[in-house]
Design goal:
This protein is of the alpha+beta class. It has one domain (8-90): YlxR-like (Hypothetical Cytosolic Protein, Chain: A, 2-Layer Sandwich), CATH 3.30.1230.10. It is built from three helices and five strands. The protein has helices at residues 53-62, 64-69, 75-90, and strands spanning 8-10, 17-19, 24-28, 34-37, 45-49. The chain has a three-stranded antiparallel β-sheet. A hairpin with a 5-residue loop joins strand 3 and strand 4. It is globular, with a radius of gyration of 13 Å.
Length: 91
């Protein structure tokens, strides 16, 4: 019997490799829009981050999200991410 391969991604905050489903994806589209991708399937350059406050703080401090998306990230995106983290915690 074959085991299914679990896709792994690196968190831009803590820099740990985790299963893709455990992380939240933030994308930059071709039109340079940045938003949280709840489905994980939209087109665009993606960055992954853990749904924890500590990882968000590390990503902001180290500019990991900006480096991954290759552009400046507005404060609104960080606020949207905090709301998405609350949704993940209530699941």
């Amino acid at each position: 019997m074959m085991n299914k391969k679990i896709p792994m991604r690196q968190c831009v905050g803590c820099r740990e490799m985790k299963a893709k489903r455990e992380l939240i994806r933030i994308i930059r589209t071709a039109e340079d829009e940045i938003f949280v991708d709840a489905t994980g399937k939209k087109n665009g350059r993606g960055a992954y981050i853990c749904p924890m406050q500590e990882c968000l703080e590390k990503a902001i401090k180290s500019k990991g999200l900006e480096r991954s998306l290759k552009m400046a990230v507005p404060q609104k995106i960080y606020e949207d991410f905090e709301k998405e983290m609350e949704n993940v915690e209530t699941r």
